[in-house]
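BUG: 3D viewer hangs when loading the predicted structure for this chain

Environment: internal workstation, default settings.
Expected: structure renders.
Actual: progress bar stalls at 90%.

Input used:
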Amino acid sequence: MAAVSVVQFWLILTSVICLFNWVEASKAGHKVDTCPETKDLWESRAASESASCGGVSEYHCLRDKDGKKRELCLEKTRILQGNCPIVTEKGFLNWEPCNESLPGCPDNHYLSNEVYKFPFCFGNNTSSSIKSENKDMEEDSDIEIIVPVVILILVAVGVVLAGLIYYLMIQRNRGPNYEPKDEEVCLMENDKRYSRAEIVKKDHVQQGLAALQKHDALLITGMLGTAVTSTAESIMKEFSNSESHSGWSFKLCKCQELPVKFDPKTIYFVYGWFGLYNDNPCSMNDVKIYLNTINSTLKKKPLNKFIIGLRSDFYRRYGSDLEDFEDLFHKSMSLDSVNKMRDQGYEDHLKNKIKNACSNSECLCRRLTFDMIMDKKEGKIGIPLKLAILTNDHDLIATFLEYKNFKKTLMENFKSLKTSDLDLYQCVMYVCLKGDLKCSEDVDKRLVNSMHFNISKESVEQKMSVMGKYVRMRKSDERQKVEASKATYVFWHPFIYICAFHALFESNPEDVVKYCNLDAILQLVRPPSKSDRKTNYFTVTATEEQVKIFQGRIKSEGQDEMYAAHPLLEFK
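Structure tokens produced before the viewer hung:
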């Protein structure tokens, strides 16, 4: 039996290596002879390949480090002049600088899916570049193809036989209650204590770790709910736990809360750019001040590194206004790209953590499919957040199956509390209006009376156990191990707050513009539009009368000059 086990081991090891190499190669797309060099050819090729792309990923044709051309799906990103986009072995987009004095080297910023404007970046892009020049080379090429195929076939046959024996042996040794170990899952959950922890991809962590080891600044972009913060935190943990960076620590802070002096040997993840829930159009000057603080710090060559977490839609909207900070954005990674093979772990999570974890064979979760989660109509929030929402509250699945819309699902859930548990509804909406809940303080009696809420500090404390479905302790308090009775609580994700805000605005719009915290209003409320343009997914539209109420509030608080450029204040 020992001899058979050794044979099995080597067969399985060989097959795993072959399969691993095949999977890694497939992530980087498939090889093509040439990349299209005109817009028409590019769009024609993109149309034929579009079926394999999903979400916000789009067709790309890029050169790899060996000069070969590959087609794959990636989220488009802005490339700075003097750089060419290339694809890495694992299917990620990287930059390769070129000599700007050479003809063809990009002399302007451009989008990665418009690289056809600069054929220079493709290198040798003629058909002959990968074709055989003579018969001998053709024969060599045939051999190069046939030999691996034969080897794979032989290995596959051996693996089938050995794998069957191995599987039976393993099953015999496992108990009836066996569950897979964490190492067998291709995704990492950032915080095991919460079922709603956003899922982080190991590929993203490895990519970010490699970048942080070589550079002092890393930009991570992603749509809301793509686990930007969780990914950054995982990268920083890996970095600070490595032997080569002993003594390093990390901190998370909003850009508005950057310290005057940065601690040495510390990585800072800075988030909240332009707004936590949505963008505040008046925040550009502040953003530039915060970025300049980081830029100035790095120029002094301190023992600091920075990860900047930025919503990808904000980056597309405001990136051209931030060109003075190219050094901070030079090394970047996007979490938005959708790749069916690389996203297999998400589908496994849906199956294992949501559907298989449910003991009710008649539960509606059996009807839930990954295609519903992947639906492009729901492309405004990331898959990690969608899975976290359904994992956090299994009862939401029935409502989601009805509406096929996460925002609508959560809004209906909040509205239903008004009839099923009025005290809980008022406690949750109190947190929405205030922006957070400071357990050490009494409730804002003026706000409570204005909203006709029947809640007190004691009633809020009594509801904290069920409020845990919607709120969490602020991470800084959690890391500092602040007592629950003295901690500050916030909605567990900005999107959950957005949905609560939308639900409250739908029923009490005038109360919202009168009493809600200013940050939320400036980010989430817009005046009536004179065009037929659709309302932003994250914002609500106030009536003319509601805008006037808000303008009166701002003026009475003496902040009309500060926010004069905001659409709500500009509206006449």
